[in-house]
Amino acid sequence: MASADPPFKCSETICDLIDLYVKYATEACDAPMIYHVVCGYWVISAVLGRYVKVITAYRREGIAPNLWVLLIGPSRIVRKTTAMNLAVRVVKEVAPQVILKASFTPESLYEVCNQLNPGDCIAWVKDEMGGFFKSLEKKYMYGVREILSSMYTGEGEERVLRNLRLRIPEGLYVTAIGTLPWPSHHYISEEDFETGFLNRWVLVFAEKREKTYPLLHQSPEAESLRRDLIEKLRELNQALGKRLAVISPTYEALEKLDDYQQELDRRITVLMKTAPTSLLSRYLGEADKFLMKLSILRRLARGGFDDPMTVEAEDVTKALNDLNLFLESAEKVIAEVEASPRPRPALTDERILAGIYNFIESKGEEGATLSELLRHTKLRSKDLKEYIFTLMEQESMICVKVPSGGRPVLKFFASRFANIAIPKGEPIRPETLRVLLR
Predict the structure, then answer these.
(1) Are 55 and 248 in contact, with CB atoms under 8 Å apart?
(2) Are domains 17-339 and 350-436 of this chain identical in fold?
(3) Phi, psi angles (nearest 5°) of residue 82
């Protein structure tokens, strides 16, 4: 592999592109620092991580540094979406082809998977993932956790889901980033951890901002940092090229990784004895892989891609400091899920769902009101609302608050009429609709 000079010399606070990203993001947005740090790792993962892997004895095809990140916190308080969008815009400027707006229904997964080729790289982006996680308990979403887990590991396979045959190519490189409202138990459950699916996500929780910027905050320094960041990312992206390189830790780095593994084993052993049903022990089972991935990303963020490329002890040290912060916040999320009751599962009778959807579709561009649906279905109001939430989370239909002279009216449209329906008024998310229909 060709050698490239380091992107910049170390300053007091900036030693790599992750540091540079954090500096840029904190100047541009007053979201919590922990969001910006994990987003910095995700940017490197989405742009540069696809080019390298670490070979291990138990996984000869290698471990790739792909990150799945979930920003968790109170809505409209901690700037989850703003922090995520800063990172997504940077990736779009450097590698726009990898960004894929996420839709996790079986049909959309079928469409995506069957268009991918071995070794392809995609980055899933989805704001407000509460509806998706709630939908995993529903009949029509059975098997989706397993499909996404296969995409995370890059292991090729074929699956049949709802009579759809999905071909997952070997060697996929998939990153993901999304947001989740708080309290999290309204959206995720113990099963998400017990199946191992949520244990693959870096869960980053923040309850409040450390600072507050004015509403019309502008920063010339942020714009200068952004241009510098994008220029250097493009240089490194070009330097790595399209070759898949093997990266390995130095002896000193490996010692640090082994020490952490032993420390982690001791902690999990204690948890299994004192709290055998704890979800935290399951989540910590992936922490050693998180550390390896974060260490690789720290190395990539420094540039200077000599052959062979090695992860240094300093990369592991920085990654471990950040991982400890991420795990501390994840513990709060897990504790909140364990301490709270499971949400009531939505109704999923496919015959009734089909009947509701067909009626809404028959209304075409005009859409259907709640009153019309009640008269047509003759369902109890409470049950009809649950079916509506199911269809919206399935992304089969949308809700729009439409002006009507006096009080606005909620109208429901089949998703294929979205381009016509959305200009009529204000699109309503499933989470907001639940509040409006109480």
Answers:
(1) yes
(2) no
(3) -60, -45
Q: What is the CATH number of domain 350-436?
A: 1.10.10.10
Give 368-405 pLDDT, tens digit per residue: 999 999 999 988 888 888 889 888 877 889 999 998 87
SS3 label, residue 427: strand
Tokens of 102: 């996420």
User: How many CB atoms within 10 Å of residue 375?
Assistant: 9
Asked if 266 and 284 touch (Cβ cutoff 8 Å), the reply is no
152 contacts 200 by C-beta, under 8 angstroms? yes
Q: How far apart are CA 393 and CA 405, in angstroms?
A: 30
Domain spans of the chain, in order of start = 17-339, 350-436
* Alpha-carbon dihedral 253, 256, 257, 259, rounded to 10 degrees: 160
The fold of the 17-339 domain, in CATH, is: Rossmann fold (3.40.50)
Whole-model pTM: value is 0.78
Q: Read off the pLDDT of residues 109-153 as tens digits, 9 standing for 90 and up.
A: 677 777 888 888 999 898 888 888 877 776 666 677 777 888 888
SS3 readout for 234-289: HHHHHHHCCCCEEEEECHHHHHHHHHHHHHHHHHHHHHHHHCCCCHHHHHHCCHHH
In the chain, the amino acid numbered 85 is N
Pairwise CA distance, residues 428 & 438, whole Å = 15
